[in-house]
Write a structure and sequence with these properties.
Number of domains: 2
Low-confidence stretches: none
Oligomer: single chain
Distance between the termini: 56 Å
Order of helices and strands: HEHHEEEEEEH
Helix content: 40-55%
Strand order of the largest sheet: 1-2-3-4
Radius of gyration: 22 Å
Length: 185
């Protein structure tokens, strides 16, 4: 604990290593589901799309400076190298993960929801429609921004999943028998 900056950079490195592994896992799952897509699209680039590239260039220059000028050992650059890996490569790759509907479930903006785990959904009206999904065992809802050109097809897929009983919602507290689950979509 004699070097607080080194300890802080090590902790940052561990945190970014976890984030890097999560992105690699998502990319592998996306690659695995390629043949199971029903309706997919790529997310548009974020507003500040160039910012990760600027951060990566700065981190790269910092690593080169520490290696050549300061002659630090490579082992002390773990934190910076994990951040460079994240901002320079894995974050841009994560933007290429396809969102949408698959045979197994729905790829949300953050995470994947299997059809059998979905307990509720609703549409949030807006310029791009947003599908909000609640899953069994989750404390928060997942979101999927649907491009307007895919809105009709997305509703059709959800209605087909309800009709085939792959997507079932729990019974309402007072069910008088006149409720059609397809109308929930």
């Amino acid at each position: 604990m004699g070097d607080p900056l080194g300890t802080l950079l090590l902790l940052f490195g561990i945190g970014f290593l976890v984030a890097n592994l999560a992105i690699v896992y998502d990319c592998v799952q996306d690659w695995r589901r390629r043949r199971q897509d029903l309706l997919v699209w790529r997310m548009p680039p974020p507003r500040f799309a160039a910012l990760p590239t600027v951060i990566a260039v700065g981190l790269g220059a910092l690593i080169v400076y520490k290696l050549i000028v300061l002659q630090w050992p490579v082992g002390r650059l773990f934190g910076e190298s994990m951040m460079l890996t994240y901002y320079g490569y894995l974050f841009p790759v994560s933007l290429q993960i396809r969102r949408g509907f698959f045979e197994e479930g729905v790829r949300l903006e953050r995470g994947f929801a299997r059809w059998r785990d979905i307990t509720g959904l609703t549409w949030h009206d807006g310029p791009p429609p947003v599908l909000v999904i609640v899953c069994r065992g989750e404390e928060r809802a997942g979101r999927l921004t649907v491009p307007i050109e895919h809105f009709g097809a997305a509703r059709r897929i959800l209605m087909d999943r309800v009709a085939s009983r792959q997507l079932q919602f729990p019974q309402a507290p007072l069910d008088l028998g006149g409720h059609d689950e397809r109308q929930d979509v």
